[in-house]
Batch of 2 targets.
Target 1
Amino acid sequence: MERHFDEELKNLKELLLKMSILVEKAINYSIKALVERKTKLAEKVIKSDNSINMMEIEIDDFCHMLLALRQPAAIDLRFITAAMKINNDLERIGDQAVNIAERTREIIKEPLLKPLIDIPLMATLAKKMIKDSIDALVNKDESLARDICKRDDKVDDLNNQIFRELLTYMMQDPKTITRAVELILVGRHLERIADHATNISEEVIYFLSGKTIMHHMEDIKKQQ
Amino acid sequence: MNDTKIDVINFNFYYSGEKALNNVTISIQQNMVTGIIGPSGCGKSTFLRCLNRMNDVISGIKVEGEVLLDNEDIYASNVDVVKIRRQIGMVFQKSNPFPKSIFDNVAYGLTINGIRDKNYIVEKVEKSLKDAALWDEVKDRLNKSAFDLSGGQQQRLCIARALAVEPEVLLMDEPASALDPKATLKIEELIQELKKKYTIIIVTHNMQQAARISDFTAFFMMGELIEYDTTSKIFTTPSMKVTEDYITGRFG
Ligand SMILES: Nc1ncnc2c1ncn2[C@@H]1O[C@H](COP(=O)(O)OP(=O)(O)OP(=O)(O)O)[C@@H](O)[C@H]1O
Ligand SMILES: [Mg+2]
């Protein structure tokens, strides 16, 4: 039986999809600004964060309305609570994109320390994780969501690699420290973005199966 | 862990050859509220009435399996049915006060049980009305007709009448379905109070009501118990897809 409520849940899904496109774009532009050394583009990312924030509020209000007026249960309830958390994760990803844009503004004032390889690669992986996590939500694809959680390690590894590499630069020549630290921070922001994408996948798994996999709960329960 | 008050084991029930309950097994916990939900005609009322043998009066019925109240089978041949109904009281969907005074309505169960002690009866009526959260509203007009009360008050009067004979279990079949939100809330609050002393089993069509008041929820469909678990589990992460579909209003 098709319910009027299903229409509203579909609208909520579409809002999250829209929001995820906005934050993917923000990451895209911030990394493009870094690679192509474009201050204007970095500024654009910083300015457009406001629309992501507004959207977060809109989605939150919509969820509150659904909770209060439709009094959802079971899978409907799990969807709305997951949506609220995903909304929050997306907004935080937007903030991290702004952080990258802010670093970029500084980085491109100076000559490049080394060619950028791992950072764009990390960005590509992180963006794909976001896109897939939202796809998993929309298509109710639990196995995709579980796969994304595994990919987080790859991003962490890259981040560590970037850190180690830049550390050697800094040790060899202390004059590179400021520039190296800026790049390390960019790696750190991307690593956080991947963490948020992992959170989103965990929310999707909870919504679909009712199982909590956050904080390795499944492993803990198995041990018990 | 909680104590089991009623144990229903492999229970079947037939109305003149027509099977209405199919192999129901459920342990009802003491001092808990158990909500029974399910689509119309799935056998909720039938099940409730089986728990105190109210179906016995219908001709052509057949019963298989066991219903244990404190480990004693209420369908055993040597059982005193009147005693069972005293232990397991019932409140119906439509309040059904007798055409008598408020006082006599509550005293009714006592007098038919042969109690003649006037003082005891007066005390018991007051206590039951207090337990049913009705005393303050009627104490000055106990001799007025029960029909002068509002719908919500009449329903609480019926609860008081059920409580007067000191039951251990209270069965309620949609006790608030004919009441406005305020009177409903009052009944719901009352149920939370009553569960301290009684074991309560309540049939409700109102999903939010089941979620609000019951500790355990049993979902029936076509005479079968589909899922039985804590209410929080049923309403957040039910195990069965049909349960999920039912409580989210996708059918039924
Ligand atoms: N006295 C009776 N004689 C014969 N069949 C009956 C009798 N009472 C109920 N039934 C049948 O038994 C089945 C279960 O009915 P029951 O009244 O227990 O359902 P219910 O779940 O309480 O429904 P509702 O939510 O509409 O009150 C139905 O098919 C009904 O027609
Ligand atoms: Mg019924």
Note: The first strand of chain B starts at residue 4 and ends at 15.
Target 2
Amino acid sequence: MNAPLAASGTTTLSSAEPDLTTASAPAARAAVVARGLTKTYGSGDAAVHALRDVSVDIAEARFTAVMGPSGSGKSTLMHVLAGLDTADSGEVTVGPARLTGMKDKELTRLRRDYVGFIFQQFNLVPTLTARENLLLPLQLAGRKADPAWFDVVVDAVGLGHRLSHRPSELSGGQQQRVAVARALVSRPQVIFADEPTGNLDSRTGAEVLGLLRACVDDFGQTIVMVTHDPMSAAHADSVIFLDDGQIVSTMARPTADGVLAVMRSISTTHDLPAGA
Amino acid sequence: MLTVTLKGMLARKLRLLLSAVSVVLGVAFVTASFSLGDSISGAFDDHIANANAGVDAVVMAGAADGSSPGALTPSLVGALAEVDGVTAVAGTTTGFAQLRDPGTGASPADASGAAIGWIEDDVLNPLTLVEGSAPLHRDEVVIDRASAESLGLQIGDSTRLITHAPARDVTVVGLAELGDGGISVLGIEAATAGEVWGYGDGFSEIRVRGEEGLTEAQVADAVEAALAAAPGTTGAGDGATDAAAAAAVTPSVYTGTEVTEANVAALEEQTGVITTFLLVFAGITLFVAGFLILNTISMLTAQRSRELAVLRALGASRGQLVRGVVAEAATIGVVGSLVGLAAGTGVATGLVALLSRLGLGLPETTVSLELRTVLVALVLGPVVTVIASLLPARRASAVQPVQAMREAAVPRTRRRVRATVATVLTLLAVTASVLGVREVSTPLVGAGAVSMVLAAVVWGPLLVGPATRVLARPFVRLAGRPTRLAEGNVIRTPHRSAATSAALVVGVALVSATAVIGSSMSGMAESEIKGSLDADVVVWSMGGMPFGGEAAGAVAGQDGVEEVGAVKIAEADVAVGASAPATEMVSAMDPALAHDMLHLRMVEGSTADLADGRVLAVEGEAGLGDSVSVTVPGAAPLELTVSGLYEGTPALGTYLVTAADLAGIAPQAADVYLLATAEEGTTGEELQATLDAYLVDAFPLLQAMTMDGFVEANRSVVDQAVTMISALLGLSLLVALLGVANTLGLSVIERTREIGMLRSIGMSRRQVRSMVRVEAVLMATYGALLGGALGLVLGRTVSAVLMDGIDLPVSVPAGRLALYVGVAVVAAVVAATLPARRAARLDVLDAVSAT
Ligand SMILES: Nc1ncnc2c1ncn2[C@@H]1O[C@H](COP(=O)(O)OP(=O)(O)OP(=O)(O)O)[C@@H](O)[C@H]1O
Ligand SMILES: [Mg+2]
């Protein structure tokens, strides 16, 4: 399973080795730290090990992609890191907050203060205008928007003239930009995005990825993105590869070809036809 | 969060409308009940106050409300006229009288029967002459304009005057109104009035006006002092009945205001009964509506669970979600209540107009919408809505933020808890009902009934699945594949289906219980009447109105009559031993005739033990040998000894005394029915025909009936009550059926995408329609069957208690129950029409891409 891979810049890892999990340059501090996460659905023969002893550090102000075959545990990992779901064992720290054993109230506060989300289905509230959707997280938290930052964000996503439109009047790409802006506007410690371009055509997808990239570069935003697309992963600073609930590899400064090669090798270990 | 809620609601106007419908119905019913009651009593209040204006004091032989009158003598009127400070005195009599339509010969339904002897003094006379002349000569009458028109009577026309005394010809000499007019009323020449009501030249009341500047109380005190100083001024005038002459009636003095208040109170007691009755049904409707509100809001939040999960992921707290849902409910409640208030006022206006037109003696009036009604409506609607929203709100707040990204997991039902609660409730219901029936305890049976309904509601979500599977079987043949889908749709949301049916369960249970109770009661009427009366013919006034004593003698004189026994009844305060007096109905009969004609089930003694100074009592009310004191207002107490105990029967009051004893304290006590036996060789039918032919002219208000006919008439009273109650309960059924339409409509909207998918894979519009219809039929059949079964059990336990120890099988009106179930199912199919059409019309592409 841990056979050396041809692509340059990749290291094969066993997730059991604790200090090899930093996927980015050593200088970066970790925005999210996870240790020994396991999560099992069902029991006995029917047990599905969605996560097996996963430890990972998400570097601050970096763009991290999570890849892996369908069912490898990407979404599960992300949900656990974001405090949307709890692991059976292991620990997660987001910024200064230790998630383990948090009550619903504290988790709510965590989501307000430290975490932003971008969903595959955009998940804008259809009855609110783009502006209202943007301001929703702040309103929920009972906070005022910082007008300067709001303008910067709106400017960055390039939606200035469409703010009074409702989601149904926006294209998919535009809706996802609103969703990105919504995640940015409360300046979270980290933004999680599960296949944010999964519902978009490749050009629009590329635009959104460019936007995410810019958020990292210009605002120092930390972003974790689950994706299936090697081209998308290539926009990231580093990639974490999951297979069967384990981190099987990481890659810094990924290229589309390099990512594809790792993915192929993972598929091969499942005896799938090469190039599938 | 509030903006999100409000915008979300506005974007779903159709759903908002659907969910508000149940609130509108409930509140409309409450509003209509209140304002109808207010309008009716308000209308009478004003008229009574106007009619008594200018009257300072009133002397009555009985109570202020005119019950149990005795006769006041003309010399008393003369004596009062001499009293210092009194400027005018007039004696008069009041009673029941109607004019006949000279064309048809019938008595109009809209005549109230209220009539009074004419008083010449304008101020003391409650009537005001508006046209023609006053009735100052024998057999002259005046009538209100509306009644004259509906009878087709002109001034100068002759017609017959119908009272409980023999009918007589009278002439209409003028038109007169009571108060502001609009009330059906009759003014009769004073001496004629005294004759028809049996006062001779005596009076039932004396109206007194004092000098300018004296208060009512001063005038009343002066009159009272004069009465005390002039003994022997009461009794009967010449020509009054012997019984009246024997009476020792003490007159009482009231101020004009007191009389008005007493009259108003008596009326309010009547209208209050109607209002209370209506309010009970309004309450039931609101309770049923509560289920639908709960259901609607549950569905609305379930449909938005993804949106709610996104909000949670974006940092909304549980409290914020709960508040959002509750705010939504409150808005629906307020909007629905406002609409319901308007609708209810409209309904009340319509009903008042209808009642005046049907002429139930209701004066023309505007509908009064009192502040209380507005407040109740505007508080009740939102409160019920908010309470009903708490459960869905709690469920909504339990949405996991992960659901924003995953397909919603199947909601976990806490079946075990539910089953436990349901079992406990069922056990409670059974225990309370069984004990209640055995101990004949109304509270226990009531508790049993309530827990039975609750148990049915709690069992609902567990029952609906298996029940639907069984019920769906016959439809599979009929509708094929769509049935399987419909079955699945009902089963996959057991809470929703159960809540929808619950409204129907409650509605059908109530009408069925009413039917069972009604049929048991009319069965009881039959066996009781046949069992306790031994006569060939019964003479009575339709509807059980009491009538004067002349009829008994007149009937006894007819061909073929062997014996006539008059049964009298009076309301009296009865004290057993030293205990506090209670108001009871006291029956009276000649003891010898009672022994012949009454077949009472005696617990102690026999009917032969009835004699002057003795009384028979219903068992449990008193013990053998107890001394009983019977008091009628204005008369000295009658002291009697209990000589026998009988089982209660609808044929008699709680006590039976001799006719002579009752006449001693209540000389005017009227007959309620006459029992007549036929001579040898005359059949009951023949006697009935003879008497009827005689009565139709001589005593037009009385009817002769064979025993079978009398039983039938008593049954029809019960049947009418059952019909009326069922009609009112029908409204809660209507609400329940709207609920079925509502739930289906919402679930069609919710399943837009799925229906689009089904259509895209080849389901025809027809199949879609029948799928939705079968869903409605399944839920309705389940609800109606469960409701029917519940109603049967409820009806049986309640009847058992009402029939208190009477050994009679509770009868089950199977046909009627089947009819209710059938009607509910058919109505559900009708209710499903719109949702079915909407589902069938969905454009496939739009539906598939719908969110
Ligand atoms: N609620 C659940 N109950 C049972 N099994 C689950 C549940 N959620 C996820 N799983 C299982 O856990 C494993 C990991 O799921 P996860 O959604 O994390 O995969 P993924 O990598 O995101 O896949 P994809 O790329 O298809 O989205 C899968 O085998 C899945 O079947
Ligand atoms: Mg996934």
Note: The two ends of chain A are 18 Å apart (CA to CA).
